[in-house]
Design goal:
181 residues, alpha+beta, Beta-Lactamase, 6-stranded antiparallel sheet, 38% helix, globular
Length: 181
Amino acid sequence: MIFAIDPIGSLSHISQEWTKLTGQTVAAALDQGWLSCVHDQDRPVVKDVLTRAAERTSEFSVRFRLCSTDGSRRWIGAGGVPSFGPPDRTFLGYLGSMTELVPDPANALQTYGQIGRFIPPPAHPATITNDHLESIADHLLIANAMIEDDGAKAALPGLRQALYEVGRALARKVDAERTLN
């Protein structure tokens, strides 16, 4: 599930899968609305990680519980890669992904957050997108994580540019949907 947030954590895009997972509409999730679905005990960790990542314009990873309108709770693994645009590589925010995690009885999941490399967790069927543009973003985020491990760092600037362009296309899509609604 792909998302885009600005430097202060305001959501500008979230996949339609968000509504399936949480019961909250995409429109209600925009800006800071999405935080109302983060478990009360996990919300401070999520906010802190987003703040610290933005201060450093660094990648981030976070694990937290999402609360659904039906009362269920799901563990989510999420993270983002900073997006920069003109002029002078202005920090625009993050393009990221989140996926539902399958609890492992042998290893209890705990809330955590870290600044640094974001390696997306394996996709869960509940958070796989049907949108082609979001699929492209998801694959680019995975490629971003793999390049670091594979030693192909010379490809990072081009990949980051591709992430920026996909993020712009997602933002245009959201703007068009807002105009229609």
